[in-house]
Each structure stands twice: as C-alpha cells, then as structure tokens.
Specification:
Blueprint lengths: L1 E5 L3 H12 L3 E5 L3 H10 L15 E4 L10 E4 L3 H9 L7 E3 L12 H8 L5 E5 L4 H5 L4 E7 L2 H11 L4 E6 L2 H23 L4 H21 L4 H4 L2 H10 L6 H10 L4 H5 L7 H16 L4 H10 L5 H9 L7
Parallel strand pairs: 1-2, 1-4, 2-3, 4-5, 5-6, 7-8
Antiparallel strand pairs: 6-7
Helix pairs in contact: 3-4, 7-8, 7-10, 7-11, 7-13, 7-14, 8-10, 13-14, 14-15
The protein binds 1,4-dihydronicotinamide adenine dinucleotide (NAI) and 1,3-dihydroxyacetonephosphate (13P).
The site of 1,4-dihydronicotinamide adenine dinucleotide has 24 residues, from helix 1 and helix 3.
Catalytic activity: sn-glycerol 3-phosphate + NAD(+) = dihydroxyacetone phosphate + NADH + H(+); sn-glycerol 3-phosphate + NADP(+) = dihydroxyacetone phosphate + NADPH + H(+)
Enzyme class: oxidoreductase
Protein name: Glycerol-3-phosphate dehydrogenase [NAD(P)+]
C-alpha cells in the first residue's frame, strides 16, 4: 500500500516503522525540516524517537502536497493542529485518525474536525494502549480500529495488521475517540497522586472512578459501553495511569510535586494532550450533562485555580453516593 503518515512525532514515526516493516511504501510528513532531513539522510528521528533505527523504506517530506498520491493517510499530528493541517491537503483518501484529544474552542472530536476539513474522505480512528517506543521496537500491541463503514474498516485493519500489531475492528468511532481523549486527563490525575505520594489505593480509585467518568461522558455522546471497556478506553486508561512512560502521567507527577503547570509545559517539545483536553473536556461534559469531578480537578490544577490538597479534599468530601 502507498501509505502516508501526517506528523512525525514519536507515534507517527512508530506507525511508519510498523507499516514499512510489512512492505508498505511509506511517506511521512514532518513539521520540522530537521526531522525531514534526519529521516531521509540518517534513517532516524533524532528529536522524537532517537533510539530506533528506521527502515530505509520510509521517506520523509515537508511538503503536504507530496501526499496526494497516497492510498490512505495516518493522521498523527497533535489534536489541536489536526484541522488546520487537514484543510491544506488535496486528497479524498481514507483518513485514519490517531491523535487523542478534543479541539479547544469548538469542542469537536477529531472525526468531526476531519469531516469538516476533508468532507470527501472516509474516516477511521486508530486508538489503544500503545506507547510509541514499544510499538517501534516490535513489542506485541493491540489497538482498536474504528470505522462506520465496516467493509472499509475491515480492509484497513487487515492492511495495518502485522505479527506484533493487532487491530480489532469496531464501528463505534465516537467511542474509540472518547476513550483516548479522556484517558489522557485521567493519566494526569494519576500522575498527581504519584507525585504527591498519595498511595496506590488512591491511584486505583482514580482509575476506577475515572473510568466511570469516561463511561458517563461517552454514553452521553452516543458511545457504546463495550467500546469504552475495550482497548481504546479501559485498556489505554490502565496503561497511561500506571506508568511514568506516559507524558500525561509524568506531567501530573510534576503537578503533584507542587510545580506550576506553566513551568512544566514551557519549552516542552513533546505533547501531553491531556493538558489541552482537560479544559475543553470540562466544557463538553457540562454541555452533555455528564458529571466529571476528576476532570474538573485536573482542569483546575492545570489552570492554577486550586492546589493538590484542595482538589483532593474536594474529591473526598463529595456527598456519598451509590457506586
Ligand atoms: N507517543 C505515543 O506513544 C502516542 C501518541 N499518541 C497521540 O499521537 C499524537 C501525536 O503525538 P506524538 O507523536 O507522541 O507527538 P510527540 O510529542 O512525539 O511530538 C510532537 C509533535 O507535534 C508536532 N508539532 C509541534 N508543533 C506543531 C505545529 N505548530 N504544527 C504541527 N505539528 C506540530 C511535532 O512536529 C511532532 O510531530 C497525540 O495526539 C498523541 O496523544 C497516540 C498513541 C501513542
Ligand atoms: O497514548 C499513549 C499510549 O497509548 C501515550 O500516552 P502519553 O501521551 O501520555 O505518553
């Protein structure tokens, strides 16, 4: 397959490596010219995935127009840049959305952003528990591949499958997107618990109650419960809430140690999507009538409106209720 990858951060690069390993002709678009040069000249993505020697079959470009002949495009830019970049493309090829977030200002999921920017392109979502480094190293990984058009989704799942990369098909696009967006916010919360030394009971409680929030919000937006309990929801929630390999978790650790969000986010080259998703998730949840006290707490911490002690007291003193 002639595959295009839009975005050469850690995840786009890892996905390019998986695809090239299976023999696909892979062209990856990078935002930074130095990334284009490093991939083409030295077969390495020095800023974002330095430890992985890349397949020589991966070619890089800084020109979005060069992607016009691609049969399918993996869209792996950070969520807040996705609409602007897709709007400049010239293609009706299927778009496989891999960013995890909600657009600030519009409160749109990535599938809505993509449909508005490229109305002629069929849309699929690839999401799940996938640390880029592990995927690039060929460690076993399973993902959700969601598409409303079952025939297309099944075809894409078969084209992307590799011996160590296993897509599970779903037709619940919204469910797959909500899991990935919400888990990043919950991972920040779990990082806070770690950084503040609040213990493993608290972390397990947050994963469990965070899943309740993800489910409430997802059901309100039309997601299916089984998708939220699958790889793209609970699976990814467990991964990122349990490991300092997660950028969102490690951002939370800094907050838990009392550092201000502004300091932690300044000059950061890699993206912690939960920091952008938390405020817009709070707005979207309010609009949908879904109670999300943990997401509220993360948004307040990030905005500097409350400190760790205050948000923990707030969460623990809520009225007792049925589970
Ligand atoms: N890294 C991972 O393990 C995984 C990441 N994802 C998701 O993939 C998406 C991309 O994340 P990563 O590849 O990890 O990014 P990264 O943190 O490795 O790199 C940052 C990316 O942002 C791009 N960027 C910075 N400023 C930009 C601008 N003004 N316009 C366009 N692009 C710009 C950079 O070129 C680079 O591709 C995110 O939504 C993330 O949640 C999903 C699964 C796994
Ligand atoms: O989405 C991811 C794993 O599935 C990556 O998580 P972080 O962005 O928190 O590193």
């Amino acid at each position: 397959m002639r595959l295009g990858v839009i975005g050469a951060g850690a995840w786009g690069t890892a996905l390019a490596q998986v695809a090239a390993g299976g023999g696909d002709d892979v062209l990856i678009w990078a935002y930074e010219p130095e990334v284009v040069d490093a991939i083409n000249a030295a077969h390495v993505n020095t800023p974002y995935l330095p430890e992985v020697p890349l397949s020589p079959g991966i070619r890089a470009t800084g020109d979005l127009a060069a992607l016009a002949d691609r049969e399918a495009l993996l869209v792996v830019t950070p969520a807040q840049h996705l609409g602007r970049i897709l709007a400049t493309l010239d293609t009706d090829a299927p778009l496989i959305l891999c960013a995890k977030g909600i657009e600030a200002g519009t409160r749109r999921l990535m599938s809505d952003v993509a449909a508005a920017a490229r109305p002629g392109s069929p849309i699929a979502v690839l999401s799940g528990p996938t640390f880029a480094r592990e995927v690039a190293a060929g460690l076993p990984t399973a993902v959700t591949l969601a598409c409303a058009d079952e025939a297309l989704g099944q075809r894409l799942a078969h084209r992307l499958a590799r011996p160590t990369f296993r897509p599970y098909f779903s037709d619940d696009v919204v469910g797959a997107e909500i899991g990935g967006a919400v888990k990043n916010v919950m991972a920040i919360a779990c990082g806070v618990v770690e950084g503040a030394g609040l213990g493993q009971n608290a972390r397990a409680a947050l994963i469990s109650r965070g899943f309740a929030e993800m489910t409430r919000f997802g059901l309100a937006l039309g997601a299916r419960a089984e998708t939220l309990a699958g790889l793209s929801g609970l699976g990814d929630l467990v991964l990122t809430c349990s490991s300092a390999s997660s950028r969102n978790f490690s951002l939370g650790m800094g907050l838990g140690q009392g550092k201000p969000a502004t300091e932690l986010l300044a000059d950061r080259r890699t993206v912690a999507e939960g920091a952008f998703t938390a405020p817009v998730l709070v707005e979207a949840a309010r609009e949908a009538g879904a109670d999300m006290p943990i997401a509220d707490a993360v948004a307040d911490l990030l905005a500097g409106k409350a400190d760790v002690r205050a948000v923990i007291d707030r969460l623990m003193s809520r009225p007792l209720k049925r589970e």
